[in-house]
Amino acid sequence: MIEKIKQIAQTNKQKIGIGVSLSNREYISRTIRAAESAADHGFAEIILVGNKSEINSFGISSQLQIHHSLNPEEALIELLQEKEIAGAVRGSLSSSKFLKEIKRQFNTPNIFRIALLETAANFSFFFAPIGIDEGASLAGKVTLIRAGTALLQLLNMEGEPIGILSGGRMGDIGRDPKVDKTIAEAEELVSILKTQGVSNNAHHHEILIENAIAARCRIILAPDGVSGNLIYRTLVHLGNGKSHGAWYYNLPHPIIDTSRVGPTFEYESAIAFASAIASKKL
């Protein structure tokens, strides 16, 4: 999946902006290195958005452009709104400031992100929800699944299995009301996806995420945002897995979220991810 995304980006190279931290030199250096590597691989035409003097102090490649701003969170979204760039990557910007700008400039109270993750065994899949306040309702879950199926269509992987997780096994029904609710919702979600024509290949894998991976599910949905965030952190920070960025699905222009402390490969993949989505106008 990741290689397919990179191939699409190379074939349809777009102009992508990436945010650069204002003060942390380690973050600045990492962002620049990732952007240079992405440019070398032909994933995008890249604009660094941040403090020009700080960025130039690292001696950047001539392939990269700089948009000077002392408020890069605001500037990056403005460039996107003004269509100066086709897509944006958060890069090493502050999460809270960046999210605030997204909600303000796009006038949306809710966001839906779906992440591109990879296990230590190199199996890649789309995963949601990853924010603690995301995917709380059945409608929200359907929206996240639709985001995943749109991405699978982009990769010519329609019909791949979808794994729906819950808080327990079917045999656990009756042990805890909260667990019972997640199981009932997972079963209902599978039915809704079939009824609405979203997918006939969605399956409830109960609490057994390992079974969803074994079934090679290319979209996996956690029961809620808290458990999703924990799964994400466990995989990426403890389980030798990788994140390649997370797409903000419900916005008019492609934005890919990254961790401010993310490794170089995450930023590089995120640039390719943004370029691929922008090229297909998802």
Mean pLDDT: 94
At CATH level 2, the architecture of the largest domain is 3-Layer(aba) Sandwich
Strands in their spatial order, largest beta sheet:
3-2-1-4-11-10-5-6-9-7-8
Overall radius of gyration: 19 Å
Roughly what fraction of the amino acids lie in strands?
15-25%
Secondary structural class: alpha/beta
Uncertain residue segments: none
Secondary structure topology:
Elements: H1 2-11, E1 14-19, H2 25-40, E2 44-50, H3 52-56, E3 65-68, H4 72-81, E4 87-89, H5 95-106, E5 113-118, E6 124-128, H6 138-154, E7 162-164, H7 177-195, E8 202-204, H8 209-214, E9 219-221, H9 225-238, E10 242-248, E11 255-257, H10 264-280
Parallel strand pairs: 1-2, 1-4, 2-3, 4-11, 6-9, 7-8, 7-9
Antiparallel strand pairs: 5-6, 5-10, 10-11
Helix pairs in contact: 1-10, 2-10, 4-5
Short description:
The protein is α/β, with parallel strands linked by helices.
Describe the model:
The structure is a single chain. The chain folds into two domains: 1-108 and 251-282, Rossmann fold (3-Layer(aba) Sandwich); 116-241, Isopropylmalate Dehydrogenase, CATH 3.40.718.10. 45% of the residues lie in helices and 18% in strands. It is built from ten helices and eleven strands. It has an eleven-stranded mixed β-sheet, sandwiched between helices. The protein starts with a helix and ends with a helix. The model has no long low-confidence stretch (mean pLDDT 94).
Descriptive keywords:
Rossmann fold, alpha/beta, 10 helices, eleven-stranded mixed β-sheet, elongated, 282 residues, Isopropylmalate Dehydrogenase, 45% helix
